[in-house]
Amino acid sequence: MTCANGDAAAVGEVISFSIPSGAGTLSASTAETTGGVATVTYTAPSSVPQDGIALIAAESADGQIYTAISITLTGLETIDIQPRPALIEIAEGSPDPASIDVKGTGGQSTSLITFDVKDSRGNHVTDGYRIDFYIDSSPNGGEDILPTSALTTDGQVSTILRSGFKSGPVGIKAVYHHDTNISTTTCQVAINAGPPVGEEFGIFAEYVNMSGLYDANLEDVISVNAGDIYGNAIPDKTSISFKTYNTGGFFEPGSAATLNGLASNNLHSSGTYLQPLEGFVSVTGETNNGGRTTHVTCLAVTPATTNVIYAGTDGGGVYKSTDSGATWTNISRSSTIQGQNWLDPYVNDIDVDPDDPNVVYAATGYLGRGNVYRSLDGGNTWNSDNTEEWNGVLSTEAVVLTVLCDDNSDYVWVGTEGLGAMYATDGKDFRTSGIGHGRTVLDIVKVPGASGAFAVLYAATRTGVFKSTDGGQTWAELGSFSGDYINCLALHPLSNGTTDIIYAGTEAAGVWVSMDSGGTWAAWNSGMGKGLSATTPVADPANKGNGVMSEVTVGDDTLSESWTVTCTAAAAEGGTFSVVGSVSREQPNATEGTPYTSNNSMVSFTISDGTSDFEVNDSFRFTTTRDTAGTIKDLLVDDGNDRLYAITCFWGPLEPHAVGNLYVHGLNADGWMTAGAWEEANSGLPEFDPPDADDTTLFAQHVMAPDIAGSPNALYIGGEGINLYKATTGLTSGSPIWNESKTGLTNLIMARMPILFSGRCHMTITQERRESDVTYTVYIQDENGNPPIAGSAFKVTKTDVKAVVLQDVVYPDVVTYPGTWRDPSDPGTNNPYIIRTGVARTNEETPVTVEFVFTPTCGASAPGCSGSLQAVQFEY
Predict the structure, then answer these.
(1) What is the DSSP letter of 96?
(2) Are residues 776 and 686 in the same domain?
(3) Does a cis peptide bond (omega within 30 degrees of 0) precede residue 97?
(4) pLDDT tens by residue, 675-715
(5) In this structure, is residue 861 part of a structural domain?
(6) CA 835 to CA 779: how far, in whole Å?
(7) pLDDT tens-digit profile of 374-423?
């Protein structure tokens, strides 16, 4: 400290020292000058302050003189550098749960998947490392994961899998964002079976015949087996209802939950007080899970009164509308009209007799059984108003796929799966025709004009088109073409039996047209089909860059093929990529950060850079799918507006569900196709999962019908999702506007079978003797002409010199059997035992005896008791 003249300050001047907190310490806050100098000692802090500086200030006692010095501080510190991820493992207890249910079935449809992220020493990594997730394998049912990436917290990351519409295993992988070589083994989550479908909804009984007509409170176990579309057991705890609809007996408790695809309930007999008609009880198992599995399979509009419409379903029976489709009522189950409860609920086709609007036929069945049911009262009952007719006018071991009623005669034709075509001249007694065993007939159409034995018919089979000119008695195969697996046929009204215009819808080859009664055919498919979907792009695990590729959108010209997008020129925060399709071959290059569209707009996407730049040969792969529109479900001719409509259906291996479309094509006055291509006619038809979901594809449709054949004022269309739509506008231009018309239609699924409540059985024998030969006619039946219960026995023994057994029967568990005459008014049900034997004596002194013994099963529990022992002996 100096004076103004430069001399040292006097001894004893006080100087104050200061330093910021944390910047160190001073030995004293003040010091006195000696020789102009005041001294304190500074000690550095134990740790360097944030700014790394210690500012020491000094000032005189009066505050007039001030100075400061800045000291830069340095030091040593230990930094713990955490190791990067080296290993990703599935965490203990993950996935949670390990199996989930298909979307929309009401069960849990999400699973939490957690991964442990560890370093090279096996320790959990610190927070903040990015891990990406992707689905490695799946049933392609629309499954997804959210989020698709996460930062580590306490050494773990998690994502959630959401199920789609298919069952099967799903594999999820986790990958370190900055080094894709570090990934987990695939985490497997099982997606359980989906909702029940009519094709896998069956019913069976412990006993089909028990003595419930006489014995009260016998218990018969009735079970329902329920599977999804792939034949897998539906999720446990699905509720199944059991009902008799007052046809006899009762269920207790009336409902049950499935376990491993099965649900059971107890049917109790009601004894003599509540006797079922002719001894038969109709038992029905039902479920309605709110899903989309029931389909409208067929439509029939009553010709005379077009406001009456029938809709058949694959498991829900038949619905009827009396107000042109505005509302619908199920006419396949009723607690007050017993005749409704005999119809098999799996309905393949319906037709209304053009000569009598009250006569309706339903073709039913699936797999190895089929029936044709007839209603004489507009669908109120399905047993021809005959209590004896509980299994239809036709019962076969083959599915009945189609039914057609003649006009101006009682002829009815049906097509079956495996038994060919059959016909009845009186509407009920069916016989086989020229398309016999081994053939499957999917559709039958009739040329306008001649009827009965002179009707000209065409039949669609899996091996081509057949023609009959004698009412279905004989058939001839017509000209073939590539892919002639025929699903459906339509005729132009100008067809006259000599020169017929035929439109054929195939299983995989689209629409074919013949102008010469099937002699030659031409494919007509231009304009059908379009690009449908693309899989999520997957980065090659060897990629050096960690950028991403957006979801891919497809265009109308998209094909089914595999695509590879490869970096051909690297650049900082950029790059150029080749785009190559396995069918479409090389496309224009794509540039990182710029929206890309290929030739013909087949694929569009954007590639985005990541924290690590792309390098040459980094690549992505994805697959696109085209709806080929090759499967034609139905065809409809609108002659009044010169239009042909075609319903298409497609379900590719990478699609979560079937999708559909409706196309229209112009017709010339002669029925030939106009120039040009098919056009879509789907305005207003329902999307699968709108409005916010990604899936805006159309529900698959199955069937169309006009209100007036040939010149409609309204069109109806029905199909999957129990959807039914109606169009009354846009028909003249071939651009129908579709509106929902399904109030009353439900996803009800039923399975049904008859159970016989038999009574006490009696044996009656008549004999007819001609010299030494005797013919016995034997009936062993209850009061309704029904057979004894299982285990009952019938034995006939003739004794001359020695005993000879002429008949030895142990009854199985059946509802019909020899020795009965179920309907005395119907000779076709007369089926007695016929036993013939000679009764001439071998030894004149020894008589010949013939003894008939009926030994019924008799117990206190089901199947019950068929009466008492009966024996009758004849001596000659």
Answers:
(1) B
(2) no
(3) yes
(4) 999 999 999 999 987 765 567 889 999 999 999 998 899 99
(5) yes
(6) 11
(7) 999 999 999 998 888 889 999 999 999 999 999 999 999 999 999 999 99
